[in-house]
């Protein structure tokens, strides 16, 4: 079954047409790899799929329903979570950040912390749990942001360049987690401009160039 | 020179002895400053947040009006409020003139633009990713707004403390609307003006030292909060 269905999706930054997707689908439980050079439209496409950016034209359906963009699209935003290329961690410690998603879904603090701790263990962030998020390294921030995305409990994860600007050690951890997630059957859409690290994964490869699927 | 040194010595002795008249003026200053800051914050903080986050017709004009209001002379505010609350004014029936409440009203008018502009700047400087991160983690509209506010909280607190510092050191409004009644509406600034005119330089210094101490503590807190 297709979770995402995109047709004739166009987006412009000012007058430049940066995205022009004729047709694209993402199936349930599948890992879709978005590849392409920097500036090929990967981030723009992921932000649209996350419901954060509205296309100028075209159809983006999630589970046969048109996505509602921005603040009104709460239902979609609770089904699909985006891990940004340069994630922002809120002021406070790691636990507070990771428990944000569960708290946003109405869980009480102890339930949310339990959910957060599970995600923290999964992303090997247990040593960071009480650390100030502002004082983490780039790689640690990315791992914590991944834990936060997992704790949110979305059924589909969009990962934008998950290992860019990350040291080798953190990168290995993140790749390991992505492999585990892929094996668990969660739907993943992962963008990267260095696809070599995904060789061990069975993926549906979508290559973008100048905003088009090639 | 001797006159100045004697004045400073007299002033310090009065402070160390906790001169009752100085302490009364300090108490009135803190009291009216506190309530004026609270009321101005209740109005100014939401206005600042709205101007930073919402896009509506007339927003630019509203920001310009607020920024212009920052430069309003305090005697002009005093004069306007005086017109409203004096016997012949529309609020004359409330008998507010020459009461602490009258000073508070004037100080609220003075502090609202300050709180609103500072908090607007603080919210506007929050990273755009805060909103998007909250959205993609499934936050409701209310939680998204709360998250943005939480990220801007140090700037908001600094705005409130800056307003307190400003209203505590104000003289024109307190003089015009309070009437400088000893133990009732006499603030540190109006007392300084009165005592120095009477030639009580030492007393003026004592009042000035207490006022500076209040403003120093306020600024110290503001800086501490911003740095943390």
Task: Characterize the structure shown.
Chain A has 214 residues and is of the alpha/beta class. Chain A has helices at residues 42-49, 74-79, 94-98, 100-104, 109-122, 138-151, 168-184, and strands at residues 2-13, 16-27, 31-35, 57-62, 65-66, 80-83, 156-160, 187-192, 203-209, 212-213. In chain A, helix 5 packs across helix 6 and helix 6 (138-151) runs parallel beside helix 7. Chain B has 228 residues and is mainly α. Helix content of chain B is 78%, strand content 0%. In chain B, helix 4 runs parallel beside helix 9 and helix 10 (188-197) packs antiparallel against helix 11 (201-227). The longest helix of chain B is centred in the first third of the chain and has 34 residues, at 20-53. Chain B is globular.
The fraction of residues in strands of chain A falls at: 25-35%
Distance between the termini of chain B: 43 Å
What's the helix-strand series of chain A?
Answer: EEEHEEHEHHHHEHEEE
Strand order of the largest sheet of chain A: 6-7-8-3-9-10
What is the overall silhouette of chain B? globular
Q: What is the share of helical residues of chain A? A: 25-40%
Radius of gyration of chain A, in Å, reads: 17 Å
Q: What would you say about this model in short?
A:
The complex is a heterodimer of chains A (214) and B (228). Chain A has 214 residues and is an alpha/beta fold.
């Amino acid at each position: 079954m297709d979770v995402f269905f995109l047709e004739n999706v166009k987006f412009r930054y000012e007058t430049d047409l940066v995205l022009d997707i004729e047709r694209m689908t993402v199936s349930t439980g599948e890992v879709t790899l978005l590849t392409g050079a920097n500036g090929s439209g990967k981030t723009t496409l992921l932000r649209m799929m996350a419901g954060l950016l509205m296309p100028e034209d075209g159809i983006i359906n999630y589970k046969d329903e048109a996505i509602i963009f921005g603040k009104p699209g709460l239902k979609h935003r609770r089904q699909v979570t985006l891990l940004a290329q340069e994630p922002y961690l809120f002021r406070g410690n790691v636990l507070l950040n990771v428990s944000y998603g569960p708290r946003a879904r109405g869980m009480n603090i102890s339930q949310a912390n339990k959910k957060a701790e599970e995600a923290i263990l999964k992303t090997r962030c247990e040593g960071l749990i009480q650390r100030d998020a502002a004082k983490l390294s780039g790689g640690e921030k990315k791992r914590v942001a991944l834990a936060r995305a997992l704790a949110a409990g979305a059924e589909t994860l969009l990962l934008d360049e998950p290992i860019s600007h990350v040291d080798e050690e953190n990168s290995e951890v993140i790749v390991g987690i992505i492999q585990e997630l892929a094996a668990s059957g969660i739907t993943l859409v992962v963008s990267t401009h260095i696809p070599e690290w995904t060789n061990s994964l069975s993926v549906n490869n979508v290559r973008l160039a100048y905003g088009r699927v090639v | 020179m001797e006159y100045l040194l004697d004045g400073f010595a007299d002033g310090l002795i009065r402070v160390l002895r906790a001169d009752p008249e100085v302490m009364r003026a300090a108490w009135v200053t803190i009291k009216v400053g506190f309530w004026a800051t609270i009321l101005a914050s209740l109005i100014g903080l939401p206005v600042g947040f709205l101007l930073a986050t919402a896009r509506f017709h007339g927003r630019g004009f509203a920001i310009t009006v607020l920024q212009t209001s920052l430069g309003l002379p305090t005697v002009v505010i005093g004069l306007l409020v005086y017109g409203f609350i004096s016997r012949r004014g529309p609020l004359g029936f409330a008998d507010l003139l020459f009461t602490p409440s009258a000073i508070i009203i004037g100080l609220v008018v003075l502090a609202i633009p300050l709180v609103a502009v500072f908090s607007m700047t603080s919210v506007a400087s929050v990273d755009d990713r805060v909103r998007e991160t909250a959205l993609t983690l499934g936050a409701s509209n209310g939680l998204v707004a709360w998250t943005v506010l939480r990220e801007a909280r140090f700037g908001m607190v600094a705005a409130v403390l800056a307003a307190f510092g400003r209203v505590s050191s104000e003289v024109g409004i307190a003089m015009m609307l309070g009437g400088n009644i000893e133990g009732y509406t006499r603030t540190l600034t109006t007392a300084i003006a009165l005592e120095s005119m009477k030639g009580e330089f030492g007393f003026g210094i004592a009042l000035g030292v207490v006022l500076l101490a209040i403003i120093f503590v306020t600024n110290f807190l503001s800086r501490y909060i911003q740095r943390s």
